[in-house]
Design goal:
Elements lengths: L2 E4 L3 H12 L8 E4 L41 H15 L10 E6 L5 E5 L2 E5 L1 E4 L21 E4 L13 E5 L3 H10 L5 E6 L5 E2 L5 H16 L8 H4 L1 E2 L2 H8 L5 E3 L3 E3 L2 E3 L5 E3 L2 E4 L24 E2 L2 E2 L2 E6 L8 H24 L8
Parallel strand pairs: 1-2, 1-6, 6-19, 7-16, 8-9, 8-16, 9-12, 10-11
Antiparallel strand pairs: 3-4, 4-5, 13-14, 14-15, 17-18, 18-19
Helix pairs in contact: 1-7
Length: about 350
Amino acid sequence: MDVVVIGAGQAGLSAAFHLRRAGLAPDRDFVVLDHAPRPGGAWQFRWPSLTYGKVHGMHALPGMELTGADPARPSSEVIGAYFDTYERTFDLRIHRPVDVTAVREGEGGRLLVETSEGGYATRALINATGTWDRPFWPRYPGQETFRGLQLHTAGYPGPAAFAGKRVLVVGGGASGTQHLMEIADVAADTFWVTRREPVFREGPFGEAEGRAAVALVEERVRRGLPPQSVVSVTGLPLDDAVRAARARGILDRLPMFDRITPTGVAWDDGRTVDVDVILWATGFRAAIDHLTPLRLREPGGGIRVEGTRAVRDERVHLVGYGPSASTIGANRAGRTAVNDIRRLLRDASSAPVAAGTG
């Protein structure tokens, strides 16, 4: 292959669209590998109560708008159906389910992509694996002694599972507040803890604000640090639902506890809270362990990226990573990666062949 794309979420489908538009053919010049069982990227795993109307800023894929979606329908169904139609309309021929186990140096200047359906030797790689497969679980003293249920946003089943229970939600992002507002209507009691004081954003969030937020995330990636989400630097939108929840005391935040006990959590100042469930809404990390053999990481722990290109290997592009980890950012990153890869392929094809080779 000339190009292997790993992942068929927003970023991977955008890259595949631009590869096809550039004249490359699926299964001849490029291939898209996806480990999920069906179209929809990470959206297919979202909890049923996250309806399409609650989704913040879902941007259409290039070349096809998402129109007429029922806001009351689960986002997993709406976006899953949209991605499915998109894949078929543009004949992207996604290979699934395919697990990529490693990417390493191959022969003749190619990368070897090792997968559950065999190996691919490729001139370039677009990594679009996102974060859903790497939920972040913080560790606290006594965590293993807790006798209740611990779960992560990645396994959140919806509010009904928490009826009549005392629930502690950990995390100051959008998922944490959404979980709290849903669970509070059915739970016996809810508690919210965050490492930092939450910042609620009032007023419009326009293009200028978006660019400024992306720039902050991009700076970390340029320095080779692990990326933070764009949401982490934008604050939480203060809409009518959030205002109502704050008025009811649902979003009265507690500082982070110091340890976990068999029946709940405790602070060093003597405070304790007994709960039945600890729900970790603590985010995700980039799913890039399969790239480890290429030694792309910087001392800071992240992969340094310029545009979408890994600084340590110009054949590798990361889309949906760091500043492009949003639906509109993923679209742009797919286009940027393909433009760079076209130049790489042209340079490779025009390079002189040394005597005695070829």
